[in-house]
């Protein structure tokens, strides 16, 4: 049995390792375009900032470890077409590779808006390891003092932190009216303040129109006519699924242009599975496919695709859209549905904000946590939660408590029954998560 996997990142290697766990005899080959198998692209902002000193520490596992696990890793190898009838894949030099089972884990690429001046030196995207190397080289050699970041999503924000650490003055351009559009603006205000307090400028409700060359420098023109002079531009405006192989394989594309898969990660084409940022993402609450290109989803899907390629029938449980991001000393996290999404699905959502201290205030160091809890007014079912607070105040752990409750379809009130741990320097007898849930219940009961 030869399982061929196209893609050597989170989804592809997760699939390969799962196959190896289940079947020591299967031949497992992984093709990847570049020579960075199983490197954490999520870590690129931290390598660029200098917090992670060595690029190779970004590898989840080294090449030697992967080969030691019995994987045949073929780097610098681009798959060009799939012949599903003859079960072969053609690579860049025309060689045909035969497979018994095929897993497509080709991921995504950075979105590049088609605008004038976008292709000149000094304009970057960040997706592949190669993008990170180019950006790092430019920072080291050109020593720019100013950068414009286009996009206020989590990659734009993480890169704002990274470039700030490198000493650059930043202008961040976001076409919406706040950062991180999946989090309510009342919570992201502290992230905005954190950036502004460091002297960085935020341009909301403006779009990038054109990038002008000014000798060796650049000028970024925005939709309101603002011209920002800079030495570099980072475009952080989203990911586009890499589905170049879908056409020849006969695989349909759907939401967000991603490959259509069912919950077993089957593509509908005999003996071909697909996983990761190249495929649609089943949403556990919406009970339909969305597109959520995240490492958390890619690892899980890869593992399931690997198992099912060996004859399994495991189902992907689905995403909740759980995410966390840190900028300077502030952390923002979210899971589940926003109010409008819940309305669209027929729920009667009620969202309540709540603030409290992260632990008993008689122990120094307590910090303010800000919550927003969304539940269905009629059934009390938890639908989503968002939290911001300082790093060290366990924002992510607390958000994960909500994510866990969401996964198990609990009500907001059920959160009060959870046996959460407590010691005064860390929490309270009622953890802040429970206080926020109680506040939601009081408001709902008072309002009804
Ligand atoms: C800067 C940054 C920060 C991030 N931070 C987070 C985070 O904090 N949390 C989180 O959950 N997610 C994060 N993500 C997203 C996460 O990295 C991706 O969701 C994840 O890497 C997707 O894995 P994947 O295997 O599906 O695809 P990719 O990582 O895109 O890998 C695709 C693989 O396919 C190969 N490939 C593509 N086409 C071909 C071909 N034709 N032939 C051969 N090989 C091919 C590529 O070489 C690569 O090995 C971040 C992403 C970026 C860019």
Describe the structure.
Helix 1 (10-22) runs parallel beside helix 8. This protein is α/β, with parallel strands linked by helices and 448 residues long. It has three domains: 2-109 and 239-309, FAD/NAD(P)-binding domain (3-Layer(bba) Sandwich), CATH 3.50.50.60; 123-235, FAD/NAD(P)-binding domain (3-Layer(bba) Sandwich), CATH 3.50.50.60; 329-447, FAD/NAD(P)-binding domain (3-Layer(bba) Sandwich). Helix content is 27%, strand content 27%. The strands form seven sheets. Strands 3-2-1-7-18 form a five-stranded parallel sheet. Strands 9-16-10-11-12 form a five-stranded parallel sheet, with helices on one face. Strands 21-22-25-24-23 form a five-stranded antiparallel sheet, sandwiched between helices. Strand 11 (169-174), helix 6 and strand 12 (201-204) form a beta-alpha-beta unit. The protein has eleven helices and 25 strands. Residues 6-12, 31-34, 41-42, 44-45, 78-79, 105-108, 126-127, 155, 242, 244-245, 276-277, 293-296, 298 line the site of flavin-adenine dinucleotide.
In short:
With 448 residues, this protein is an alpha/beta fold. It has 11 helices and 25 strands.
List segments where confidence is low: pLDDT < 50 over at least 5 consecutive residues: none
Average pLDDT reading: 97
In total, the number of domains comes to 3
How does CATH name the architecture of the largest domain? 3-Layer(bba) Sandwich
Q: Helical stretch count?
A: 11
For the CA atoms, what is the radius of gyration? 23 Å
Task: Please give the alpha-carbon distance between the first and last residues.
Answer: 61 Å
CATH H-level homologous superfamily name of the largest domain: FAD/NAD(P)-binding domain
Number of extended strands? 25
Strand content: 25-35%
Structural class: alpha/beta
- By CATH, the topology of the largest domain is FAD/NAD(P)-binding domain
**Biggest beta sheet attributes:** 5 strands, parallel
The residue fraction in helices comes out at 25-40%
Supply the CATH class of the largest domain: Alpha Beta
Read across the widest sheet, the strand sequence of neighbours is: 3-2-1-7-18
Instruction: Identify the overall geometry.
Output: globular
Ligands: flavin-adenine dinucleotide
């Amino acid at each position: 049995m030869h399982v061929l996997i196209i893609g050597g990142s989170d989804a592809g290697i997760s699939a390969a390792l799962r196959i190896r766990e289940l079947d020591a005899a299967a031949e497992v080959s992984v093709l990847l375009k570049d020579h960075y198998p199983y490197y954490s692209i999520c870590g690129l902002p931290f390598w660029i900032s200098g917090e992670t000193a060595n690029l190779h520490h970004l590898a989840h596992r080294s090449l030697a470890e992967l080969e030691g696990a019995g994987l045949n890793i073929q780097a610098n190898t681009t798959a060009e077409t799939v012949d599903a009838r003859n079960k072969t894949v053609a690579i860049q030099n025309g060689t045909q590779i035969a497979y018994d089972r095929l897993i497509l884990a080709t991921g995504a690429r950075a979105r590049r808006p088609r605008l004038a001046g976008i292709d000149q030196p000094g304009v970057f995207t960040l997706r592949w390891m190669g993008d990170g190397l180019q950006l790092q080289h430019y920072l080291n050699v050109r020593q720019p003092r100013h950068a414009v970041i286009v996009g206020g999503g989590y990659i734009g924000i993480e890169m704002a932190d990274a470039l700030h650490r490198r000493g650059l003055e930043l202008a961040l351009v976001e076409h919406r009216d706040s950062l991180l559009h999946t989090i309510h603006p009342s919570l992201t205000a502290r992230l905005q303040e954190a950036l502004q307090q460091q002297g960085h400028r935020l341009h909301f409700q403006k779009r990038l129109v054109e990038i002008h060359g000014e000798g060796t420098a650049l000028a970024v023109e925005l939709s309101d006519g603002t011209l920002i002079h800079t030495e570099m531009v980072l475009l952080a405006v989203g990911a586009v699924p890499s589905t170049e192989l879908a056409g020849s394989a006969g695989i349909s594309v759907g939401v967000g242009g991603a490959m259509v898969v069912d919950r077993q990660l089957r593509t509908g084409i005999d003996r071909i599975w697909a996983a990761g940022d190249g495929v649609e993402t089943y949403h556990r609450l919406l009970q339909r496919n969305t597109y959520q290109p995240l490492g958390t989803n890619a690892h899980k899907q890869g593992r399931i695709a690997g198992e099912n390629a060996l004859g399994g029938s495991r189902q992907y449980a689905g995403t909740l859209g759980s995410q966390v991001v840190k900028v300077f000393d502030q952390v923002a996290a979210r899971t589940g549905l926003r109010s409008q999404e819940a309305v669209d699905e027929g729920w009667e959502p009620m969202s309540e904000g709540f603030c409290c201290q992260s632990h008993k205030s008689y122990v120094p160091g307590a910090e303010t946590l800000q919550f927003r809890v969304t539940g269905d007014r009629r059934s009390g079912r938890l639908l989503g939660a968002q939290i911001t607070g300082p790093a060290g105040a366990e924002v992510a752990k607390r958000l994960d408590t909500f994510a866990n409750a969401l996964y198990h379809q609990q009500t907001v009130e059920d959160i009060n029954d959870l046996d959460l741990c407590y010691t005064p320097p860390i929490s309270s007898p009622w953890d802040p998560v429970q206080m926020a849930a109680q506040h939601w219940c009081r408001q709902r009961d008072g309002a009804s």
